[in-house]
Specification:
By secondary structure, the chain is an alpha/beta fold. It has 5 helices and 7 strands.
């Protein structure tokens, strides 16, 4: 009888611990931008390059789905990216504010990255319509965040999944190798080495992406002057 009573006490204690742990977890969810990658990421774009939305509106609609689910995270200073840029493209009303438009390839690349890493945190897209008040098109009119007019091609990224991307770290190397597998030749990445406290670091060899100096608070990616589309996108028919 005593043994049975001890076993019952142990079971009650275990259940209590499980309930406390569950309550703590529910009360303290992890930020979406720092969520662990749900599935193993591809090192080259294969499955994540299948059935990528082929129009700006379709790609923006997918990004709105990701934003609403927490997979696309926008840094607070550039929070107008959603209402001023992505939402109008998704709604088909971007012609009313053409200066806020974003290049199709940029939208597609964001979709592909979110598919691959589970979540992406963005700190800059089109500065004409969303900026932090410091890095603006007035302060740097030739930035790819500002050109070409009506379809800017740059993105600044600060997280992929749970990994911080500063431009001078291992996560950046992982990301750039992946992007190099489908971005067109002539694309660019902004990185700074041996300056601004960024230190010295090595990065993987890239075939399609060249590098230029930038601050090590993020990784900047753009399409340079090339107008070529993303490489290796494939279509796979599905049956319902």
């Amino acid at each position: 009888m005593r043994a049975l009573r001890r076993a019952s006490l142990r079971l009650a204690l275990l259940l209590a611990l499980v309930m406390v742990a569950g309550a703590f977890s529910a009360a303290s969810p992890a930020p979406a931008a720092h969520a662990a990658i749900a599935q193993p990421a591809e090192s080259r774009c294969v499955e994540t390059c299948v059935n990528v939305p082929s129009t700006p509106q379709a790609a923006a609609q997918k990004l709105m789905e990701y934003y609403n689910s927490g997979a696309l995270v926008i840094e607070w200073a550039e929070r107008d990216i959603i209402p001023a840029e992505i939402q109008p493209i998704a709604n088909g009303t971007i012609s009313q504010t053409p200066q806020c438009n974003i290049d199709l390839r940029t939208l597609q690349t964001l979709v592909i990255m979110i598919r691959n890493y589970g979540s992406v945190q963005v700190s800059d897209l089109n500065r004409h319509c969303a900026n932090d008040g410091v890095a603006t098109c007035a302060s740097n009119p030739t930035s790819r965040h500002c050109t070409p007019p009506g379809a800017t091609t740059a993105m600044d990224l600060t997280y992929i999944g749970s990994l911080r991307t500063r431009g001078n770290d291992g996560a950046t190397g992982i990301l750039l190798s992946f992007l190099d597998s489908f971005m067109p030749a002539g694309s660019r990445a902004g990185q700074a080495a041996n300056s601004d406290g960024c230190g010295s670091y090595g990065m993987p060899a890239l075939s399609n992406i060249s590098r230029f100096a930038d601050y090590c608070t993020h990784i900047h990616v753009d399409f340079g002057s090339t107008t070529a589309g993303l490489r290796g996108l494939t279509t796979r028919w599905t049956t319902s």
